[in-house]
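Please review the protein record below. Tell me whether the encoded fold seems credible here:
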Amino acid sequence: MLGSLLRRNSYQAPDLLESKLFNEDTFYPAFLKDLNKCHSELIIECPFITHRRLNYLLPALQKLKARKVRVVINTRDPHEHDEERWRDETHRALATLQRGGIQVLYTSGHHRKVIILDRSTCTRAHLTYFPRIVVVR
């Protein structure tokens, strides 16, 4: 009896060796699908935040906030961008996020590109070579 109870309630760790390769055309639809499954927390680490990408993701981020999902974005301090246009663009995008109740953190010298959903799904991307995006589940 105890054995069957333990088997029924046993925790199954995610298979961290399972991964998928996405390109620029397939990444965002898959990412939006993953966001719909997010229940408690979304962490995005990205050194560059622009309005173009934000406009695409903002409706999904707003839905997460409406469902009481904690959303955190860790990014580079806008003052670290070399060009004034990038500093201004980043300031506007981050202000939009903060107005929406999204927590924004600044990390000096930040260059990680990582997305973590519910502390179990991790997406790592090398956006300089955009087609090389690997999602680890």
Remarks:
- Confidence is low (pLDDT under 50) at residues 1-11, 127-137.
- The CA atoms of residues 44 and 68 lie 17 Å apart.
- The chain has one domain: 16-136.
- The first strand starts at residue 19 and ends at 22.
